[in-house]
Amino acid sequence: MSPEQSIVDRGMNESYEALLASSEFAAERATWAACVERGGLSLDPDARVMVPQFPAAGEEQLRVAAVDVECKETSGVTQAVADMEAALQSRYIDANEGELDAYRETADEVTSRAQDLLTTVVDG
């Protein structure tokens, strides 16, 4: 873990990267891609996630957004991907519970001190 990355940040990053590398995500992305392509859209060639190629602002952008959302809703890919990431995060939490609990205790202490300071300043 790098000094600037907390245990929480590391968990979010690791689960996200694992999601994107999974065959399950690739299958869901392929389902979505087929739908948006049937809708006349192109995929964003630089995107690792489910993002169509967006035109400049205007009416066409609204059509692209509508097709994208329709494909995500009708195929169920949004929920499927959220469920996959939640499972990855759950495994991370289970594997790092002690360190995450310690991080939470520290965060709670900092929050408490900040609240005390604010109360002193406001009441003072």
Please explain how this structure is put together.
With 124 residues, the protein is an all-alpha fold. The protein has one domain (7-96). Helices cover 76% and strands 0% of the residues. It contains 5 helices and no strands. It has helices at 7-21, 23-38, 59-75, 77-95, 97-123. Helix 2 (23-38) packs across helix 3 (59-75) and helix 2 (23-38) packs antiparallel against helix 4. The longest helix is centred in the last third of the chain and has 27 residues, at 97-123.
In short:
This protein has helices at residues 7-21, 23-38, 59-75, 77-95, 97-123. With 124 residues, the chain is mainly alpha-helical. Helix 2 packs across helix 3 and helix 2 packs antiparallel against helix 4 (77-95).
Would you identify the regions where 5 or more consecutive residues have pLDDT less than 50?
Answer: none
The H-and-E topology, N to C, reads as: HHHHH
* Number of separate domains: 1
N-end to C-end Cα span: 41 Å
- Average pLDDT reading: 93
> How does the helix and strand content classify structurally?
mainly alpha
The gyration radius over C-alpha positions equals 21 Å
Sheet of most strands: none
Beta strands, count: 0
- Portion in beta strands: under 5%
Q: Give the CA-based shape.
A: elongated
Number of helices: 5
What is the helix content?
over 70%
